[in-house]
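#lab-general

N.A. 3:47 PM
ok so I finally got the sequence cleaned up, no stray characters, all 232 residues accounted for. can someone with queue access submit it? mine expired

B.Y. 3:52 PM
send it over

N.A. 3:53 PM
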Amino acid sequence: MKKNRPTKLLKSAVILATLLLVIFYQKAEAQQMFVDDAAVTTERSFQIETWYGSRESWFLTAISPVRGLEIGTGIGVDSRDGFDPTNWILEAKFVPGDLEATGSAIGLAAGALYNFDGEFEEFFAYIPYSRMILDDSSVLHFNVGFDAVREDDWQYELITGLRGDFGITDRFALLAEVAAVNFGDAFYQGGLRISLVPGLLEMDITYGEGFRRQETAPGFNIGIAFTPDRLW
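B.Y. 4:20 PM
back already:
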């Protein structure tokens, strides 16, 4: 019974943190989208982001100690099984250019997932590329990389994806993406981004399914993010 206590405490902490964010930051860029952008959080600041999904949910934190570098960690939970914690993640992203200043940027991201027994379960790495379009009102993002998952043996997968963030007004954008694993298992996701406090608090509401009829991932997701300005 004592062995389960840390897991129960961690589960409670994750739920509490998620609820606090929802309550206090209802105006929240939330990266529940599969395709990542070639940008990092504000230099010498941090970001807190979380999203609830019908299949899985995440609570993530990230910090940018120097220009172009973002380091993050967080916890994933199974939304279908009482919010039980399933993984924790360590990840880093390096983007030397400034997307908004130059109109395009390219970077490198990598991360590792562990279960709560401390076992290494997954490693991924990809190249994100982003480009401003439509008089800089919208952005296209492209990712290519690989994912290594440890099951009975290591399984390696090629991951690709294309996403568009199409600005409607200063506070609203339409999101749409398609992604695939090994050019076979593909899915789409789309939704709306709401920016009630530009540059600080944003919310994404999205829904996606696989192109195969039996595949329901990624399902419904609602995410928020809090990104303060430079702090030191």
